[in-house]
């Protein structure tokens, strides 16, 4: 086990760069949903009426907001995260908190497949960095 010496700001930068490399390639969102349904086939039930072409774009926009929201003074991205939290909450799409476990795993799996400079530590940086905004979304589940 090596000591973790990077600052929070450095980790955000590392994950953002990894996301830029990975999302530049075509097929990122498609693969994300394949991975998500591989990890938890039951989640397909939520997407019975979904137009995936539209949803793939929505996912990429959502990921942009998630990453941007980590920077200071990103009012717009933070508002968007709040909006997404509301649309996913119990009173709206009712995405159960436990589904986010698979969402995070699918995201890291996909980043690993699409980032040409992937290495093992990136997995930890991704998990650490996205845990804050994803926890926020989950925390709004009963409030929507
Ligand atoms: C932090 C994690 C997530 C982010 C950033 C995210 C992002 C988004 C965005 C941007 C949309 C488009 C609608 C909107 O803007 O409100 C959307 C729709 C949707 N999301 Fe998520 N999502 C997340 C987690 C999940 C999870 C865990 C599930 C459960 C499987 C899920 C299921 C859905 C469904 C069913 C839709 C609607 C699809 C349709 O229009 O038919 N999302 N999501």
Quick overview of this protein structure:
This protein is mainly α.
Shape: globular
Whole-Å distance between the termini?
41 Å
| Overall pLDDT confidence | 96
- CATH topology: the name is Globin-like
Enumerate how many helices there are, as a single number: 6
| Helix content bin | 55-70%
CATH architecture: Orthogonal Bundle
Radius of gyration: 15 Å
Give the CATH H-level superfamily.
Globins
Bound molecules: protoporphyrin IX containing FE
- Which ranges are low-confidence, i.e. pLDDT below 50, for 5 or more consecutive residues? none
Oligomer: single chain
Q: Major beta sheet, specifics?
A: none
- CATH class term: Mainly Alpha
Share in β-strands: under 5%
Would you give an account of this structure?
This protein has 144 residues and is mainly alpha-helical. It has one domain: Orthogonal Bundle (Globin-like), CATH 1.10.490.10. The chain is 65% helix and 0% strand. It has helices at residues 8-23, 28-39, 52-68, 75-87, 99-114, 120-139. It is globular. 22% of the residues are buried. Bound molecules: protoporphyrin IX containing FE (HEM).
